[in-house]
Design brief:
Number of strands: 24
Structural class: mainly beta
Low-confidence stretches: 327-342, 428-487
Helix content: under 10%
Number of helices: 2
Strand order of the largest sheet: 1-2-3-4
CATH class of one domain: Mainly Beta
Mean pLDDT: 78
Order of helices and strands: EEEHEEEEEEEEEEEEEHEEEEEEEE
Distance between the termini: 60 Å
Shape: elongated
Length: 487
């Protein structure tokens, strides 16, 4: 119940009827028993009612807005929603039970509250509402108060919890009543459950905020005592007033990134983790995109390059495509050709790539002009020293005569520790072939392998042109140093 002195009217909450009412306080007892008299001239009639018109046959269940509400009061002058009627709408009877704080703005003219043509009072909908869904549900008691700073003080009575919320609905302060029937509870312990489902033993009817000036006007001697509950100050030398929502005495840092909540750019995670350097910490970044091609890292087909660039339209972005099929072989940049046109030719390119998941990816792309079938073996070697190596993975494929080319990709999870790897490509036995080296190309070139970037040593970006005429093996070795990343 609330009283509005300016109007000399009383607001009432009919909890069982799911309605609020306004009556005229200026009537005498005799006038109140009639429909005449008082400032309104309506005697004891309702001046206004709202929340559930079906109780007086002016609607159905779909028009109901209040559900066992409590604590109706006018929003005070100076508040952005002044003149409205606010309730704690407990939510009993909702399809999914939850509580809300609701404000309705009664419609008035010089004659009083406006009655619609269908004999209901407006408006049709609420002016403001706040809830946290099923997280805040109080089947009984509870209340709300509009504060002079534009915020709202909300009491979830059955859980003994108070919230201060701003106009956007953000909770800026939370306090749990530490007192139960047997005395205070330590802050570090959960409050015991109450006798009814969904309640705790620290229940309160409602909380009211009083300003310092109001307290002073009461002319009452008020002394400051000790804390209500047993409490340990974890940060005794820190001034955390207004910055300590969890009550441990420390300035809050919910995500543990070393940045206090009131300075935190990203409350959901560390501020200093920004993999794509876009100024938005990754935990709050809707799209983490290191190479800036508009494709998130988690979906990127070619990290470090633009996925949308695919000149030869083969489905492989140019930055990760060993062969540009749209350009004739004679025009490929840095391609080494041998002037042995009478001999069958095989041109291929090999690359090692360290992927973000820790796997080592090997890729072979070849263009060939052969008149005989071949079997090609790929081996990934771990170099032990200058004179020994171990095959850690291998695969074999058939190269069919007179076909234009081939492309293979395969990957392994390398062993723990730092190691040097070489990719070897050779013909199977029985093929008369010669080994060819580009100028300056050593059998095992050191190449730094970086995460998700194709790494190739000097000259290894070239296509290798090999003729099938002399020796028993042809070897192209591409090597890289790799350090396994740890979590």
């Amino acid at each position: 119940m609330d009283y509005k002195e300016l109007l000399d009217q009383i607001a009432l909450a009919g909890r069982s009827m799911n309605e609020i009412y306004i009556i005229d306080n200026s009537t005498t007892n005799e006038e109140a028993a009639t429909r005449l008299g008082g400032n309104s001239g309506l005697g004891g009639d309702f001046l206004y009612r709202w929340g559930n018109p079906q109780v007086y046959n002016r609607g159905d269940w779909s028009h109901q807005r209040f559900y066992a509400q409590h604590d109706v009061q006018w929003v005070n002058q100076g508040h952005p929603l002044e003149g409205g009627l606010m309730v704690f709408n407990n939510g009993n009877g909702r399809a999914v039970p939850y509580s809300s704080v609701d404000i309705v703005m009664p419609q008035m003219n010089e004659s009083g509250y406006i009655l619609n043509e269908n004999s209901t009072f407006g408006p049709m909908e609420l002016a403001w509402t706040w809830d946290r869904g099923e997280d805040i549900y109080s089947a009984s008691v509870s209340g709300a108060q509009a504060l002079s700073n534009g915020h709202m003080l909300v009491t979830q009575g059955t859980k003994g919890t108070m919230y201060e919320i701003n106009r956007t609905g953000e909770i800026v302060w939370r306090y749990v009543n530490p007192i139960g029937p047997d005395g205070p509870y330590p802050q570090s312990e959960a409050v015991p459950d109450g006798n009814r489902a969904g309640t705790t033993l620290n229940a309160v009817f409602k909380a009211t905020h009083y300003t310092a000036s109001y307290v002073e006007s009461m002319n009452v001697n008020i002394t400051v005592g000790t804390y209500l509950e047993s409490w340990y100050d974890a940060c005794p030398h820190t001034q955390a007033w207004g910055l300590d929502a969890n009550g441990d005495g420390c300035v809050d840092d919910t995500d543990g990134d070393g940045v206090p909540n009131h300075h935190d750019a990203c409350p959901e995670g560390p501020d200093d983790v920004d993999e794509d350097a876009d100024g938005v910490p990754d935990a709050c970044d809707e799209v983490v995109d290191n190479d800036g091609d508009g494709v998130p890292n988690t979906s990127d087909a070619c990290e470090g390059h633009d996925d949308g660039e695919d000149m030869d339209a083969d489905g492989v972005p140019d930055g990760c495509d060993p062969v540009d099929d749209s350009v004739p072989q004679s025009n490929q940049s840095n391609t080494t050709q041998h002037n042995v046109s009478e001999e069958p030719q095989l041109v291929y390119r090999a690359a090692l790539t360290m992927e973000s998941n820790g796997q080592l990816l090997a890729s072979i792309n070849g263009i060939q002009d052969l008149n005989t079938n071949l079997s090609v073996v790929y081996e990934l070697l771990q170099i032990i020293n200058e004179s020994s190596s171990v095959v850690v993975a291998s695969t074999e494929r058939a190269v069919v005569a007179n076909e234009t080319g081939f492309f293979d990709r395969w990957s392994i999870i390398p062993p723990e520790g730092q190691a040097r790897y070489c990719l070897e490509v050779r013909w199977s036995e029985g093929i008369n072939a010669s080994q060819e080296h580009l100028p300056g190309h050593q059998p095992c070139t050191e190449v730094p392998v970086q995460a998700e970037n194709t790494a190739e040593g000097a000259n290894s970006a070239n296509f290798r042109t090999l003729s099938l005429t002399a020796a028993t093996a042809i070897v192209l070795i591409l090597a890289g140093w790799w350090a396994r990343r740890t979590n």
